[in-house]
Amino acid sequence: MIKPLYVFGIDRTVQNIVGSEIYGIYITLFSLTMLFQIVSDFGIRYLNNRDIAQHQQLFKKYFSNLLVLKGIQAVAFTGVCYLTAFFLGYNQYYVSLLSIMIISQLLTDFVLYLRSSVSGLQYYLQDSLLSISDKLLMIIFCGILIFKNPFDAPFQIEWLVYAQILASTITVIFSLFVIRKHLKGIRFKFNLPFLIVILKRTWSYALAVFLMSVYFRMDVIIMERILPDGANENGIYYQAYRLISAMNMIGVLFSGLLFPMFARLLKEKKPIGDLLAFSFQFLYAMLIVASVNIMFFSEPIMVTLYDEGNAYSGQILALLIISFIGTGSSYIFGSLLTANENLKELNIFYFTTMVLNIIFNFIFISQYKALGAAGVTLFTQFFVLFGLIFLTVRNFEISFNIRLIIRVILFTISVIISSYFVLNWITLDWITQLGLATGIGIILSFLFKLIDIKGIIQIMKER
Fold first, then answer.
1. Are residue 184 and residue 257 in the same domain, yes or no?
2. Residue 458: its pLDDT value, please?
């Protein structure tokens, strides 16, 4: 509940205060730093967590060497961000804002690295608390700045970044405190052969993350550069994308749950068909119910959430929320293929997706602005979904479950019809209509047996 509270309580309020244009500049630079996040990490967190979890005695060796590597990566990350800013022709204001955002991003990355050690050392409760600590601190700090502003000036977008820096710094201190007894006797050193081995083990995973980051993040960077009012369009675009970002937690949670389960089944050479079918139909049901209903009520949602919300931003939300059906479903097949280490195929496919995404963004953004970016996102996410399904079928020789496909199609049609009926034939305020339509969708998911409570309980026991 902490992240949704931050996203809609703080982040949304900040955009309403500073306006879409200023917030659009912020989100452009945020996307730029996220795009190159792989430079500051390169898959180190994933490797560190897995290896320490399996062999805790490696912690001191890894920490002493990887911290040196993280320092090198931080310098490289900073250089890449500034070089890109120079290449894109950013002005002094952009560069000054980017400078503090680089610091914020590096601290956030360091927090995630420390958390990979915390969870690898099996401090699971502490890791759970650390996972929400920065956002909780952000809610406190920004809440004071927004609602009890102690300064004789309106809220500035820089304050949001400064609050993030302070929150991340405190979280770093908390993280180091958790693992303090494991830090005794550590001597930092530069072991080049060891670091080369680490980078060789992580490069393919890092490449996959980078390629996905490009087709997820490039649209706002392109939009800000090629449109005269690009910053404002970015702000409008992110008004809708904020909802997708919040809902994305569902897919991330599923991915984290399914990856070790798929890995174990593959290692034990057991069939994965049942788990794949169950997870897909369960997640798909949730995605359809949420996405279809938000699509139908997109305009009133945007008008209610934002001071600048209107029919245009509602159309953008409608496209983006339908794209999330593809995004969310892709987590399942992506987790399976990653667990099976099909990274070469994935990287080739992700590279193709990235190229198409960039080309289409240049074409459609220039004509349709933020609405064009949303349309390209819709195409991209379903292209990824169908591509991952194709790779899954080819690698695992999975036969299509015709009965499941028919149930999914009939369920989707039923949800669309019922939501349309509630919207157009039942006279209530839109929030009540949305709640009613969502409730009907949930009932339909049980009637079509896409959600199986017994199956969920069994999955959690196996987990």
1. no
2. 62
